[in-house]
Design a protein that fits this description.
Blueprint lengths: L5 E6 L4 E8 L3 E9 L1 H5 L6 H23 L8 E7 L3 H18 L3 E5 H7 L11 E6 L4 E6 L6 E5 L5 H11 L6 H11 L21 H17 L5 H26 L4 E5 L6 H11 L6 E2 L11 H12 L18
Parallel strand pairs: 1-4, 4-5, 6-9, 9-10
Antiparallel strand pairs: 1-2, 2-3, 6-7, 7-8
Helix pairs in contact: 2-3, 4-10, 5-6, 5-7, 6-8, 8-9
Length: 336
């Protein structure tokens, strides 16, 4: 009888301290996340030094809780997976050094994981993959289209040339004096407003699957400033709805076009912005008119968590990929 594979995952790339245990890369045994949103909210964004300090304070507590809720012991764990990058280097170092210390003390294999691979594999915790597939990753720091021919194989066919979609959301939210993180607040306002402002769509050159949201962000900021100078009143709801419509239009259109061109059998959505109701609804609407199945993870698996790192780490472990105790954090790690 084939033995189950139990992987411990550790995630500290930004402002969530997370530990999880996943069985066979598809079943969550435990998934504990300590969020720092309240600490960073007053600054309007994540402060790297504060994030690192909170990770140090929370790591042992979260690790113990993950084992307590799982009912497992270290004897049940086959390997330790950890986010190596990309992310905030100070935050990453806390997770990486924790994983290395545990791997040495418990004599367990160590497996480094790319953060974006983790977001992709969050989908496998809900539904098995069908290859070839296309992944749309949309988060605060990343906007990418990734083609996968098989497990552990990543080909980036499109990426942002400037601001990520989530970054643009946060900056527009700040202009509207909305609290951090801004994405959910923009999404809520957009549902109450009308698309009455014609903001630009950056399609770039023909055939490109790259993205650009810097121009859109600037257009929104200029619109708000110009209206104030003229004494005009713009409804925040209409700004949010018009801005979000521009972002979603580009994301969905390019994803649909790439899915058809590459003849994929499945499209998956990943990253924090995958929780956006407007984006989810529009993608579901567009792909319901095709024969290509769309997979969107539940909200709890869209944002950073360690179950996704354990899921991706399972594939690395099963493919024989190991990291040495010289593993280091890499803030700009490339997905390959």
């Amino acid at each position: 009888m084939k033995k189950d594979t139990m992987i411990l995952g550790i995630e500290t790339s930004c402002d969530e301290t997370a530990v999880a245990i996943v069985k066979n890369g598809t079943e969550i045994i435990s998934n504990v996340v300590a969020s720092q949103i309240e600490s960073h909210k007053r600054f309007g964004g994540v402060v790297p030094e504060i994030a690192s300090r909170h990770h140090v304070e929370q790591m042992t507590i979260v690790l113990e809780e993950a084992f307590q809720t799982s009912g497992l012991t270290w004897d049940d764990i086959d390997a330790i997976s950890v986010t190596q990058g990309p992310g905030l280097v100070g935050a990453l170092l806390v997770g990486v050094n924790t994983a290395k210390a545990l791997a040495f003390a418990k004599q367990k294999p160590l497996v480094g994981v790319h953060h974006i691979a983790g977001h992709i594999y969050a989908n496998r915790l809900e539904q098995e993959f069908e290859f070839p597939l296309l992944a749309l990753i949309v988060s605060g720091g990343h906007t990418e289209l990734v083609r996968m021919k098989e497990h552990g194989s990543y080909e980036v066919i499109g990426e942002t040339r400037d601001d990520a979609a989530g970054e643009a959301y946060d900056k527009v939210a700040r202009m509207l004096h909305l609290p951090y993180p801004g994405g959910p607040h923009i999404d809520r306002l957009a549902a109450e407003g009308e698309e009455s402002i014609d903001f630009p769509r950056a399609w770039l050159e023909e055939g490109s699957y790259d993205f650009s949201f810097s121009g859109l962000k600037s257009a929104v900021i200029n619109k708000i400033h110009n209206a104030k100078q003229r004494g005009e009143t713009l409804k925040d709801e209409d700004i949010a709805a018009s801005f979000q419509a521009s972002v979603i239009d580009v994301l969905t259109e390019k994803t649909l076009r790439a899915a058809k061109e590459y003849k994929v059998k499945q499209v998956i959505v990943a990253g924090g912005v995958a929780a956006n109701r407007g984006l989810r609804n529009e993608l579901e609407k567009k792909f319901s008119q095709t024969s290509i199945p769309l997979s969107v993870p539940p909200l709890k698996l869209c944002t950073d968590n360690a179950a996704m790192i354990a899921a991706a780490g399972t594939i690395n472990y099963q493919q024989g990929k190991r990291s040495g105790l010289d593993l280091n954090a890499n803030a700009s790690l490339i997905l390959k």
